[in-house]
Amino acid sequence: MAFSLKLAVAAALVVTLSVCMVEGYPSGAPVEACSAMFPNHRMNHENSSLPDERYSSQNLSTAPYLITAARQDNGKVQVSLGVTDAAQYYWEGFFLQARLQGTTAPVGRWEVLPTGTQTRDCPGGMKNALTHTSETKVRTLDATWTPPAAPANMTVVFRVTFVKGFETFWVGLESAPVTGVKAYVSATVPLKALTTVVFSTALMATVAAMF
Ligand SMILES: *[C@@H]1O[C@H](CO)[C@@H](O)[C@H](O)[C@H]1NC(C)=O
Ligand SMILES: *[C@@H]1O[C@H](CO)[C@@H](O)[C@H](O)[C@H]1NC(C)=O
Ligand SMILES: *[C@@H]1O[C@H](CO)[C@@H](O)[C@H](O)[C@H]1NC(C)=O
């Protein structure tokens, strides 16, 4: 085989290989992934009559990631994602949701977003999932989660898919359950101010009636 032909074959092979790597989510997980939280990373078969092969999740028991969650005094929950060894591990993509223990739909919402993140509106809510905006290597991330307005007292599990690379990802790693999370009712007019308004309105009505 002539050298130039070998080169052409090699070049064609490189192009074929890169074309074969399909369906990554470099700019964040889409709403289609809300339920399974599975990255649609596929390797095409050379035989087109066979179905594309989907890469599978790594074993969760060996995941090099940490998910911690702590209730705050203001009723929200601080969620921290990290790696077990910063010298070796990182993620290039992630998808984070809070779910009521034993259920499959995300609840609550993510606010005051960390750099390099964006929310998704999964079915049933708004801003109820958090994902990356680019394939930057990340080793630590803190996010704040606001509970939903019901139920009154809930047990919540934070569920994350971490993507280290196209072929290497962990689907649905969960935090320890966080119990005693209270329904979050957004700040309204303080009771004292409300009483004053009601009282002065009543007084005005009384005064008006006198004339
Ligand atoms: C492709 O796969 C189909 C189904 O297994 C098989 O019948 C066919 O022989 C394969 N073709 C080639 C070129 O390997
Ligand atoms: C994951 O790893 C654990 C511990 O090594 C093993 O017991 C378990 O069978 C593995 N699970 C799968 C799905 O391979
Ligand atoms: C909330 O639920 C937990 C169990 O998940 C229970 O231990 C706790 O007493 C409950 N708190 C209230 C105020 O009902």
Description:
The protein has helices spanning 3-20, 191-209; strands spanning 21-22, 42-43, 53-54, 65-71, 77-83, 93-100, 109-111, 117-120, 129-132, 140-146, 153-165, 168-174, 178-182. By secondary structure, the chain is of the alpha+beta class. The chain has a single domain (27-45, 53-197), classed as Reeler domain (Immunoglobulin-like, Sandwich). The strands form 3 sheets. Strands 6, 8, 9, 11, 12 and 13 form a 6-stranded antiparallel sheet that branches. A hairpin with a 5-residue loop joins strand 4 and strand 5. The protein is globular, with a radius of gyration of 25 Å. The structure holds 2-acetamido-2-deoxy-beta-D-glucopyranose (NAG) (3 copies). The site of one 2-acetamido-2-deoxy-beta-D-glucopyranose has 4 residues, from strand 11 and strand 13.
Question: Could you give a short description of this structure?
Answer:
The protein has 2 helices and 13 strands, in the order H-E-E-E-E-E-E-E-E-E-E-E-E-E-H. With 211 residues, the protein is an alpha+beta fold.
Helix/strand layout:
Layout: H1 3-20, E1 21-22, E2 42-43, E3 53-54, E4 65-71, E5 77-83, E6 93-100, E7 109-111, E8 117-120, E9 129-132, E10 140-146, E11 153-165, E12 168-174, E13 178-182, H2 191-209
The chain binds 2-acetamido-2-deoxy-beta-D-glucopyranose (3 copies).
One 2-acetamido-2-deoxy-beta-D-glucopyranose binds next to loops.
